[in-house]
């Protein structure tokens, strides 16, 4: 037997939902937590990196040491320390990373993530 016709709904009937299953006085379901952004910086990508790129990734260094041929930038994190030696490249006419050292108990990718996330926000200011 087919269902009968639907009953008429009065025009002044209060609408409690705009979507099926969601009530007007009910808060929307919370969004699932988002994964933090992970800077995809690998340790081997640091070699030959331009000074400006290091500044955009890690922000201002916590310490700068200048020598006759090399300028060293140091970044101190909670679990490690990153040191980048820059020298002037005549070919590229720019300061480029010549050697990098990661000192501390953290693995290199974790160290770079730890340093890049908070410091990159400072560099954008």
Structural commentary:
There is one protein chain. 19% of the residues lie in helices and 23% in strands. The chain has 125 residues and is of the alpha+beta class. Strands 1-2-3-4 form a four-stranded antiparallel beta sheet, covered by helices on one side. The mean pLDDT is 79. Residues 1-36 are annotated as: Disordered.
Catalogue the unreliable spans.
none
Largest sheet, spatial ordering of strands: 1-2-3-4
- The sequence of SSEs as H and E is HEEEEH
User: Biggest sheet: strands, sense, closure?
Assistant: 4 strands, antiparallel
- Helicity range of the residues? 10-25%
Mean pLDDT: 79
- Identify the overall geometry: rod-shaped
Overall SS class = alpha+beta
Residue fraction in strands: 15-25%
Distance between the termini: 71 Å
How many helical elements? 2
Question: Which oligomerization state do the chains in this entry correspond to?
Answer: single chain
Using only C-alpha atoms, the radius of gyration works out to 28 Å
The count of β-strands is: 4
Region (Disordered): 1-36
